[in-house]
Amino acid sequence: MASLVSLDGTSFELAEAETLVGRGGREYNDPPKVDVGPLEGGATVSHHHARIFRRNGQWYLRVEPSARNPTLVGDKLIPGGEEAPLVDNIRIKMGEVVLVFHGPSEAVLQSPEMTMADGNGLTLTPTASREPPPVSLAASLVAEPPAVTEAPPKEKPSVSAPRPSDNWPARLPGRPVTLTALGVTEFKRVNPFRGLMIDEEAWADAHDYHRIQGRLHLLTAHGWGIIEGLEVLADPHVPNTVLVRPGVAFDFQGRPMIVGQERRLTLSASDGATLYVVLRWREELTAPQRFWNDLDEYTRVVERCDTLIQEAPPAQPVLELARLKVAGPVRNAGDPLNPGAGEIDLRFRERLSVRPRPDLAVAQLVAGDESSDGKPPRHILGLRYLLREIGQTTGYRARWAGIVRPGEPIPPVSLLYFSGSGKFSFDDAAIESLRQFLGTGGVLLLDTCAEGSAGDFVGASEAAAKKLSLGLQPVNRAHPMLSARHVFSEPPLPGKKDQTTLAEDGGLVLSTVDYGCAWQGGPADKPLPRETVRAALEFGVNVAVFARQRQRPLEIIELEA
Fold this sequence. Notes:
The protein has four domains: 3-102, Tumour Suppressor Smad4 (Sandwich); 185-221; 227-325, no CATH class; 359-559, Rossmann fold. 19% of the residues lie in helices and 27% in strands. The chain has helices at residues 137-142, 177-182, 200-221, 380-393, 428-439, 454-467, 515-519, 530-551, 555-560; strands at residues 3-6, 11-13, 18-22, 33-35, 50-55, 58-63, 71-73, 76-77, 83-86, 90-94, 97-102, 116-117, 123-124, 225-229, 232-234, 241-244, 247-250, 256-259, 263-266, 274-290, 296-310, 319-325, 359-365, 397-404, 415-420, 443-448, 473-474, 502-505, 508-511. It has a seven-stranded mixed beta sheet, with helices on both faces. Strands 2-1-11-10-7-8 form a six-stranded antiparallel beta sheet, with no helix packed on it. Helix 4 packs across helix 8.
């Protein structure tokens, strides 16, 4: 049987299932308890300080959230609510009390009479083995083999030999992951009646019931991980410092973690070391109240989380936010999908499995004189079909943000679409508004309409690009617009021979072919083939996703990769 031994030689036997370690006698509904209060320093141990239990053959210690003084297993500090494995002769310190854990002395009997427990807890007694004694390998190597004049007959396969699939029950997990994360095997709630005495235990049962139910719902219906935010970025002002942005997450045990303000962490490690930025849940007792016995009892529990940098790979329930292989000054990754040495790696962040889809908003920029006759703007039907494709083929929720006039404030959108068939010009106010929009990562698609003078529209687009200090360059095969969602080797709509059909710089995209018309099937008198319409819509989805990912680069990892 496992036991705890104090420095003065006092030994405490541990129950096979679970033992509570603390100060004072056992209370109602407590598991078997070890009272270390009489030991030297026993006053520094909480009434409910830790639990020692066995799971899948391994012993663990879990610190109670209410433990007020620190708990060390070996030399490792174990926060409240977390657990650590125990090995034989390991030193445990609770407050000022030092104990040594001794594991049970177990010998496996290698005899026919030994008993085994099957998966249902029933005791099985196997019969004596009928197999012949094993042959010594060394003897078989030196013994002279008998002369064989003819091939021996092939043995028929044993009918009773187990098939590979017969052993599938042995591969079942010993315990469901959710039960391990919750740490409970039953639900207990208060049964109210007139005259019920309300004490601290009743309060705890009432609150714990709803907390555990909430964690169960979250873990089984949604999972765990980062909900929003908590990006890790290099501090642009302080070398070798990272910033953890505000955000919300749930850890492996379904406990909420909120970082309300930006946090700054300093890196201190030599080149070649791998560091991990992690988030750890903890409870903090606050609002003390002194009772008649001159002891402070805390009236509130604040749930907090710590942001830490560690060299050891994070283990559950600690949540990884980023990792970094140190190589010179810390930097943001130029390509989040392929960070290099010295760049912050965000690819291993665990995202919550089910969460609301982020918006991908699209608006149409319309010249002042267009649609003044009451007709709908050009290609607005094609935009409607494009939005439908975005919603059905991507992880985004497509949102229509309406019509925008040059110079008006641009709503928070990712893609701004403008189509024309002749000359146009943007005044200084419109140029400044577009400059600010492109600076946020948005994309302005200038789409040449087939009706009218395409050359005039292209010339006016190039003049607008010059005012914006942008130099349009042909889109090549490596451009993300050709692979953001659907893969293309080149822009899908053909142009005239040796004509550049697509150019981009700084989020300003110029198309010399009519994508907006293709999105709605082509001109009424010249309908396009189904394959052409499909390719045009898929490319439009690419442009929209490219725009969103220019604004939120991490979504390349979180939604598309």
